[in-house]
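Posting this for the archive.
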Amino acid sequence: MERLQKVIAHAGIASRRKAEQLIKEGKVKVNGEVVRELGTKVSSDDKIEVNGIPVEREEKVYYLLYKPRGVISAVKDEKGRKVVTDFFTEVPQRIYPVGRLDYDTSGLILLTNDGEFANLMMHPRYEIEKTYIARVKGIPPKHVLKQLEKGIRLEDGMTAPAKVKMKSFDKRKQKAIIEITVHEGRNRLVRRMFDAIGYPVQKLKRERFAFLTLKGLNAGEFRELTPHEVKQLRTLAETGSIL
């Protein structure tokens, strides 16, 4: 279910604010009935008309992008910087990123025009796991990494327990490569977690989202998710496991 004004905006008929105005003015019908309430939600089966003209809805699409560093996880940027949707110039649908990756973080990010799916993937109660590879300054000992596994206190509260694995380290250069899996979506979470234990991140890449990986893709490349992958992601979010 999606808000009526959002569906109208996604169909390219009007901006969301203009769509809200059209609803208030009684110019929108759902299944033949005039709707004036802004909070109204509609399903894919509902027939919507604006000024007597049927609304043609976009086909739902789902993409996996290998986001390079130096790209904004947004559909536009007021400073004119490159954004993730710049890689999809041939895609006719109005897609947007599911969650975000920091400007200086590379890796796997999903894009879609399906609001319900995006909410399932982002909502903290669904606990979708995301795995990152972090290059950190210094070599944290096991007992320090254990703090991340148990959860640590940040300025916005305790973190949920994480899965942490030391991949390699270089004593001469005093750096380590660490794999960390989290399921929260807080801003710059992984970087702040390593800052909190005194081993700042020098480079960060998201390598996995649930069961999805970057296999076969180079930075800046994308692929469409298969219907089976979309179904598996929905099942994982709703039940906590893949059938």
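The chain has six helices and 17 strands. Residues 62-125+220-239 form a domain with the Alpha-Beta Plaits fold (CATH 3.30.70.580).
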